[in-house]
């Protein structure tokens, strides 16, 4: 009897210990994984390059976590191995270009010089009408990835004056230049012309609620030009791993973008595939905890940013679609930039300096520490 009673607490202690190890391991894999970066500092260059690249993959969706990058790359391979190959090549080209021209090592290791090249490559593959495994496409993919790094390097000093992130300005510029230069009938690099979101459908059918709801998570996948449900859910899971707050805002913003599309009767195909929601997702994530500390004010602000990004995307799509060009993520990029330039006292107090941006949960903790420090300093004076 005594032996049984003694064994029970030991087994309970073992269960609690295992549970604690699991929680600690999960916490280690969330957020920016700063400890992993410190661990990789003295490793061989090839291993460091892999870590930088995985952070670059995750940076597309505003995350900074190598494990999230691995999951997202797996989702892209699941959706299309050819697209995953193009994205990886563009990512490596832009990252290595930054290393060669001597860009800031902290920015390179954080993946900031890789995600624009990846996006350029993914969009080149999506719009190409030559089909998968068209090997000649690797040439513009490499050139586009390198060009995005040069543009990033040139824009950074200019935008730093206003404490603004470069974001995906290079990607939007490079992909529009490429598509405008090649054209839909180019003999070497042909591509599909973009269709305006507001174009009327000749054979429009009744709206399907099931497909409409599927369009919300697909809006998150469309940030990587992915319109398959399974990979899109995995991309959302990778975002939630980095930050539950960021992942929930991604879904919220995509839903807001879908509602915005419904309100102005965009094509059903755009609603079902997530094209109507991905700019809203980006706009909502950027404001809802990433560049602003999460509060009820900034939460409402992020919803407004999502709707504004979605409506701006529809307008730009209709405008650029007349010449067969896509609106890409211009809407979310410009909207977020405008939001960051607002100087109202109720918002500027929650604005996070670009160089201090971390996972939203960490931003909340750091903001409370800064506020406490400022209160202490004012009391001392």
From TrEMBL:
One Pfam family matching this protein: UT
Tell whether Transmembrane helix is among the UniProt keywords: yes
Which stretches are annotated as coiled coil? none
Q: Which reaction does it catalyse?
A: urea(in) = urea(out)
Q: Which UniProt keywords apply?
A: Cell membrane, Membrane, Transmembrane, Transmembrane helix, Transport
Q: Is Transmembrane set as a keyword in this record?
A: yes
Instruction: Provide the family line.
Output: Belongs to the urea transporter family.
- The protein here is known as Urea transporter
């Amino acid at each position: 009897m005594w032996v049984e009673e003694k064994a029970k607490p030991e087994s309970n202690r073992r269960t609690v210990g295992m549970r604690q190890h699991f929680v600690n391991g999960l916490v280690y894999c969330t957020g920016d994984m700063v400890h992993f970066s410190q661990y990789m500092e003295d490793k061989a260059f090839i291993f460091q390059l892999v870590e930088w690249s995985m952070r670059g993959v995750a940076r597309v969706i505003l995350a900074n976590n190598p494990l999230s990058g691995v999951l997202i790359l797996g989702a892209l391979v699941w959706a299309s191995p050819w697209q995953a190959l193009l994205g990886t090549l563009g990512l490596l080209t832009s990252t290595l270009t930054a290393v060669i021209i001597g860009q800031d090592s902290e920015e390179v290791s954080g993946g900031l010089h890789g995600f624009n090249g990846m996006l350029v490559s993914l969009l080149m593959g999506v719009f190409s009408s030559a089909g998968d495994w068209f090997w000649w496409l690797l040439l513009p993919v490499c050139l586009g990835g390198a060009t995005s790094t040069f543009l990033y390097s040139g824009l950074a000093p200019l935008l730093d004056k206003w404490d603004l992130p470069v974001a995906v300005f290079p990607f939007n510029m490079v992909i529009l230049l490429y598509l405008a230069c090649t054209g839909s009938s180019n003999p070497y690099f042909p591509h599909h012309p973009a269709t305006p979101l507001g174009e009327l459908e000749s054979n429009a059918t009744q709206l399907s609620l099931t497909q409409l709801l599927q369009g919300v998570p697909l809006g998150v996948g469309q940030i990587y030009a992915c319109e398959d449900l399974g990979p899109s859910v995995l991309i959302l899971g990778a975002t939630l791993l980095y930050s539950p707050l960021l992942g929930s805002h991604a879904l919220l913003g995509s839903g807001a973008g879908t509602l915005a599309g419904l309100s102005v009767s965009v094509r059903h195909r755009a609603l079902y595939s997530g094209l109507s929601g991905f700019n809203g997702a980006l706009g909502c994530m950027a404001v809802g905890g990433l560049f602003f500390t999460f509060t009820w004010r900034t939460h409402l602000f992020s919803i407004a940013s999502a709707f504004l990004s979605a409506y701006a995307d529809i307008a730009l799509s209709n405008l650029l679609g007349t010449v067969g060009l896509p609106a890409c993520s211009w809407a979310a990029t410009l909207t977020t930039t405008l939001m960051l330039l607002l100087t109202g006292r109720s918002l500027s107090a929650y604005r996070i300096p670009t160089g201090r941006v971390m996972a939203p949960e960490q931003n909340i903790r750091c903001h409370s520490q800064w506020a406490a420090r400022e209160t202490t300093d004012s009391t001392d004076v």
